[in-house]
Amino acid sequence: MEIQDTYFTINQPSTEVLFKEKNSKFFGYAFPINSEEEVKTHIESLKKQHFSARHWCYAYQIGTDKIQYRANDDGEPNNSAGMPIYGQIQSFNVTNILVVVVRYFGGVKLGVGGLITAYKTAAQMALEESEIIEKTIDIHFLVHFDYKNMNKVMRVIKEKNITIVAQKMEESCEIEISTRKKNAKSIFDIFDGIFEVGIKEV
């Protein structure tokens, strides 16, 4: 079975999109994120930008193996906003992403069905405006060895085209390397098999 070691995300925030329905305005945004803290930051800045809006509904997904997600209706009827937004994240098959839809109420109630359609459409428009890119899932290892074994280690790194993330070269050396998930086991086994060289996942 081939290991799945790529995922789709966006590389920069989308441009603002606007969907109108019965005088209500729905502004849609998509942001690339790596942590929940970033969600708060983006929501807070949108609240400043749209201070007179009524609702700031959103959904996000983080992770590839262990998925973390949340859908927030922010005062709209249950599952009428956050889940339709999250549904679009799933249908575009993207992760490490936050999609926010800001609503200005236009005086006419849309009903739950109307809200679901409006939030889904604004989220879809925001994702269509985003540049979706494919990234690899990388595993990081720490290789440690004595200085005298430097050449052995560097030869493998060069032959296998491994990315060096950080290095500390003293009497005892440490190099942090990163490799695609599907190559991780073979890379681990190579270093693990070299005399006087240690390797562990970080």
Describe the structure.
Pfam families: Impact_N. Residues 22-127 form the Impact N-terminal domain. Belongs to the IMPACT family. InterPro entries: Impact, Impact_N, Impact_N_sf, Ribosomal_Su5_D2-typ_SF. The chain has 202 residues and is of the alpha+beta class. The protein folds into two domains: 6-135, Ribosomal Protein S5, domain 2, CATH 3.30.230.30; 138-201, Alpha-Beta Plaits (2-Layer Sandwich), CATH 3.30.70. 32% of the residues lie in helices and 37% in strands. The chain has five helices and eleven strands; from the N terminus they run E-E-E-H-E-E-H-E-H-E-E-H-E-E-H-E. A five-stranded antiparallel beta sheet has the order 2-3-6-4-5, sandwiched between helices. It has a four-stranded antiparallel beta sheet with strand order 9-10-8-11. A hairpin with a 3-residue loop joins strand 9 (163-168) and strand 10. Helix 2 (82-91) packs parallel to helix 3. The longest helix has 18 residues, at 111-128. The radius of gyration is 23 Å and the shape is elongated.
Question: Helical segment tally?
Answer: 5
Number of strands: 11
| Rounded radius of gyration (Å) | 23 Å
Order of helices and strands: EEEHEEHEHEEHEEHE
CATH class group of the largest domain:
Alpha Beta
Instruction: Report the CATH architecture of the largest domain.
Output: 2-Layer Sandwich
N-end to C-end Cα span: 25 Å
The percent of residues in helical segments reads 25-40%
**Which oligomeric state applies?**
single chain
Superfamily (CATH H level) name of the largest domain = Impact, N-terminal domain
Q: Kindly give the count of domains.
A: 2
Main sheet properties: 5 strands, antiparallel
Secondary structure class reads alpha+beta
What general form does the structure show?
A: elongated
Which consecutive residue ranges, at least 5 long each, have pLDDT under 50?
A: none
Strand arrangement within the widest β-sheet reads 2-3-6-4-5
**CATH fold-level assignment of the largest domain:** Ribosomal Protein S5, domain 2
Percentage of β-strand residues: 35-45%
**Average pLDDT number:** 95
